[in-house]
Protein 1
Amino acid sequence: MPSKADLKPLDRANMAIAKVPPQVLNPYDCLGDNAEFGPALFSRLVPFSVHIATTIYEERRDRLVNTSIIEPLETATEHLHEGLAALGLPGSLQALEKPLGLPHSLAQHAEEIRRSDAIGRIQKSLADIDKLRAADVAVMDEAKQILAAEEEDDNALRLKYGTERWTRPQSKEDAQGQKIWKNVQQIGEYLASSLASDNLIREKIVAVEHLLKILAGPERGLLDFVPSSRRTEIPEPLRPVIGRLRGSYNDVLRLESRRRKKVEALREKCRADDIKPDILKEAARLERTYPTTAIVPAHFEDFFEKRLDRLYEPDLESLDKESDEQERLLSEVARTNREFESQKKNMGDKGQQERAQTLQQLDNAFFKYKEIVHNLEQGRTFYNDLSRTAANDIRDPAKRWANQRRVEASRLEE
């Protein structure tokens, strides 16, 4: 049996080997859009100032496009149809070209009125506007109550302690209070003028509602409403004049069609205008240029201006060209229409005159409907914007200011 001295210690055996997973050893190799674990947590976190700047740009872009480009184009189109209606077009031309049945353009207008549920759409828009206006009035009333309560409390304390001891400015003399009260007055004026505008829209609706109901009704009813005229032989001297007038009128319709497509393309360009990638690059550039300065939305002003000019300045500049083209075409239509009316005098068909007047009334009603829809959309936008203004610039500041004044009053009392 071996002695203890003869025994040798056993070599150390490694029972486990420490191995670092490759994901931990080289984490960046496993991160990325197409890597095993996707992008790193918070790698796409955007600074809050960039979020605010993005919102500012989008609001400014939408205001520029809608207010400075699309609205002038739509207003110009309304004036275009007003000019045609003053000439009795297209009714006088359609009555002569098609003495029986419905002109193709009128049938198309009636179909659009039916498909869009014109009467229901108008009534729904009016109800929406009434709700929005009531909500705006409620916000303003709340703000006025807050201001009135603060003023009443301040006057009571001034009466209690006397003007010599209660030396702080009155509610409407305080600088911040003056600003809030001024905003209240301004918004009140906006609401008063908007009510007058709403009433004008309602008057427009009443004026054409019976015609819209005819257009929205069955085709048989529309055919019965439009008087027919007897077929007459068009005098030979009148034929070329009709051709020229039809050509001039079609030129106007083509201008309107191009304008409509331009407005749709502009709206699509707005929807596709994603500023986020570019504004992140601009934010990175600003951080490199001014490493010790915190980035705020005001730093992006030049960037906004250059981008808006590059994307939308050509559309703004084209407005004058659109206006000149419209004036030229309307002048041409007026000239050929005078020649047409002069040549047509000798025909003296009473039935044709009645048909022309009815066709013109229906055509006017259709475009008046388009104008009313445009006005209602403007009204909805106005009240939505006013709601934000009333809450952010009046009610909420009034609450904060009134609370500050109460705290200040408590300190003065002590």
Protein 2
Amino acid sequence: MGISYFRKYRGQAPGLRNSHLWIIIVLFVFLSISHFTQLLSQIPFLSEISLPTVLEISRHSLERFFYLLLILYAGWTLGIVGGAVVLLSSAVAMLLRSFLISPNFRDALLESISGLVIGALAITLIATYRQNKRQREKLRKTVKDMKLARQNYEELFTNASDAIWVHDLEGNITLVNKACEKLSGYPVSELPGKNVLEFLTPETLSIARQVKDKLLRGETMEQRYEQRLIKKDGSMANLKLFTIWLVI
């Protein structure tokens, strides 16, 4: 599970090819041998592996500090599950020495518990940081997709062969596409701000009001309906319209 988490967020190969896993295993084994060097004194080679002896100190506090660093390293590279496994393994090693070997039981226990608490908090912070990072990346992707969708919609709207315009409840035109220019005779730049009443005769205005009343009642216009439009030059254009109601 720890390796799967690492692969998900770091894109590395799982299993035995994970270099971080092997580094953590080697370091953990080395620290554990040093931490229990008294129990391994009968084995010549292993009895020489002792950080306190090399550094000429009498206590094993430094090893507890390195256990903490190893927990942090595992939490960052292997994820929260890998960090938790190393945390539990380190807890077993440190607490066993505190109870079975350490001559200063109280100090050793306090140091061990403090290191484990700090390690647990650090892993939680790492997990929170990565979760926030994933959410930010997801948000950025969503915004990017929305921008792309809007761009595609605007291109489709602008270049559609059918004339499309948008107007508010009062009939004021707010948005048009290029095809409206050929249909109405007005340049695209002049149409926004005009009212649809300017393009309708009394007869066609009655039809438009009927359509509006149906839409306000929640009914849908499932089929196109015929309508006539007054063009800029005063001529009439016969249309088949399809109207939809948008709530923004």
Protein 3
Amino acid sequence: MSGKKQKKVAVIGDNLDEGRQINALMDSRYIQILIFLTIIAFFLRLYNLGFNSLWLDEASTNMIALKSFSDIWQVTVAGEFNPPLFYWMEHIMVMIIGNSEFVLRLLPAIFGIATIPLIYLVGTEYRNQNVGIIAAAAFAFSPFLIIYSQEARAYSVMLFFITGAMLFYLKALKTNDIKNWILFGILSALAFWSHFYAFVMVVSFMIYAIMIHIKDIKRDLNYIKPFVISLITFVGLSLPLIIVTIDLFAKRSSSAPTYGIQGMGVITETFVQISGYSEIIMYMFMILFVLGIIQAFFIDKERATFLVWSVVSIFLVSYFLSFKIPMIPRYLQFLAIIFFIGIAMSYKMFFVIKPTKKIIYGMTLLFFIVSIPFYTGYYSQESKTDWRGFSKILEKNTNYGDYVVFVPAYIQTPTEYYYSNKTNGVMFISAYTGKDLDSIQKNNNSIFYVMTGDVMAADPTGSARDWIFKNTKLIAQYNDIYLSVR
């Protein structure tokens, strides 16, 4: 047979092998369930995506995303609470597709959907396909993750990258392969460029890798080379942001936070929210998590220790930081990976009683059943501050030449998304304190004051709130937004 014919036969043989592999993959019950879960996640994250109006943080996303790439970086340097990667991505979305609530939230929804197959791979790498499919179900149906996949913020993007980083991290722990370590470094950097707090989990992972391999490193220093290359990759890609982060942390921690959760409340509230905003479900999930950890220790002490270390180290850091900077459970969204992997491991306990696949299907179904009460309310009523509705009230009450004062100043941003003061000839003014309000001179036109219930977070002294109560007349209240006139 000639060389050309041999080559042709070889190519045909390779194609046949690939075809068999694809068929085998598609015939796998696990893959079928995963595809089904991903489709469900698709609908849960895209349904009514533009229903809620943009709230404060989402309006800030829009405002920043409309800037140029260089200006977005300058906003970060100036003190923005989120790194620029998500804003750069949103900038491209808005420029190409257009500007609407749906478009602004589409990117987080896509990343939220893409995380489902990714967490399946993490669970499979951690233990097996059973753990992978249970963890994928938990992610697909999770109210906590659905909410932040439908919000124009960086949380679901960060979660996608940190989940991918964990996949290659687990591979690297097992093989010490340089390729896996480099991919871990790259994805960790992308997670950090998406949200500052990802840095905490990345550092936790790195410390654990050194802890469990310290004996190997002492025996042979070459063993640490792949890890060092991963570290250099992460630092090299993140260096500009690391420098900015150090400066921003020094500024933000110079005074006590005026909002957020402090101390042990960070731990309990994070678990409640990850569990679907229900204490009862949280207790049930915590029992399953502990059972999963116990089972993991029987199978692989190293992997079990990893779960415990991740939760404990991250919460200790968060506990300490909660007294320095504002701490909110959504910053710790990546703990859902550890929490649901631990819960998924509990299936082995039930296998002892009766080893049947029905246990896997039952646990998968459990995550859907406990989330039904959330679905019934979430998709049918406003779950965010309705600035769209309030702007209509403001428009009805104001006339050409009137002043509108925003207290605190930052709530002007979501109003401007829905209400154009240029079109209506209204002057916008921002204020934070009672002194700021005193300085506004009254003329023949009306002065309207817009205040939100969180005004004390911006002005802990209460001077602005007291000034408005004393000097203005309340004419409308819409949710947590108050409209007064003078």
Protein 4
Amino acid sequence: MLGDLGAADEAVTRRLKALACTAPLHDLDARKSHLEWVDAAGYQMSEIALQAIDQVTLAMDFDHGADQEQVVRRLVPFIAAQGPDRPVKEHDRVGHWVVDSLLNVGSVDRGFKVDYGAFDTEGRYVRRRFDFKLLVELAAPDGQVFLRATDEAINVLVGALDTDVESAQVAAEVKLENLIRRGRLGDARLAAEQARYRTVQYAEALRAKLDATQRDVRSVDWMAAVPELIEEALAHIESRYRAETAILSNIADARDDATEPARRRQAAELVVIVNDCIRRHTQLQARLQEAGAMFRAEQDRQQFSGSPQRASVDVFGQLLRPCLELGVATAVAPTSAFFGAVAGVRVPSVLSLGGLVETLLVPTVERDPFGAAVPEPDLMDAEPDRFSEEHWQRAGDLLQLPEVGRRLSGLLAEARTIDPELPGLVLLRVMHAVGSSISTARGQGDDGLCLAVDDGTVLDDEEFGGSDLLVTLAGLTRASDRASDPAAGPAVGPAVGLAADAEEVA
């Protein structure tokens, strides 16, 4: 019974991880309404994100990736098709926003995290965390930063997760060959693109192993795992050469037999895709043949490189203690020379040299495919709310103002007659209205917005002090409503005019 539960749980885990990889794409459409610099209702951000991942994947090579500016330029025509009446600068900015979101710019590790449940070996339900990335930034040897698509991002394109590369490639090739023989060139192109994505993913797995070897040969299993990977990859390439040669001949026959220009164009596009697959196989084969020599060279370099020849400086014994025995005038020269050489002429690009060295020396750790267990947080009991639901309801009723605004002092006096605790809540609501944003309220779909303006009048109240603010309620209308109804008037109701007049008085 436990074995059946574990097998079922593994299948559920794969589906949950597949959903997790698509969550950042759906989140783009959920967050687009909060963008204040663009009305993004007409843009399908998830479709733009898929196009971005596609462009990065096709531009990836074994040693290099995709240039971010070039990826955005290739996205602009697709974005312009969704908003043809929008300016080109807006299309370019939308493309940069989508790429930055796929990179998860702004987070600490630029990764996505999703929690899910699974059963351990003893049948207990535990919470685990799945960490993944879609696009990553890497530096080339010449210092240029480029983009690469991760395995999870490629799996988003082909609609699978953690699929065995070899079996998926064989299935894609068989499907492609059958579709070409049956003359379904449109479906054959889709299958060919999926086969190419699998080839890129296979090469990316080998590149990750070689990069880890260059950092630390001890972090990669060269006794069993990597030789097995190389052997399987060489067998994979040999079988793919035979399959792709047969596919090319079938495409040529379909192209020659076709009489319609559209079918001939589809056949020609298939030839380009299959030729690109053959090119990638050739490049992968060259890297596989060089892998053993690279491992031996890195092993010699890391084992016999020796310690640094330059002696380290003892800051405490050679600088601090001797300077403490000197006078201030005498100690200025050596300390100034030392700190001037250490600080340099510009601000360093890293915040902490110690943190950078520690990060570089940490060996690469293989990631747990099921994710780390999520610890249960020990939460404190929440403090009871000072104001009850009835207080919030009464404060909202007081702030449902007519077109003519009111003074804060009058609102506080009326609230005090209703409930002694109510003036504090009314004051908080009014203070929040001082910094109200019309664009935020419109993006949230609110019909009205409470505004408070200081015109210089001093508040005369027995409990609170400050300015006697002018408080009013402004009605909001959307641009689409004004376009459909010319009589709808301005975007903000007449109550905003009171706030503008108050600002002029102040």
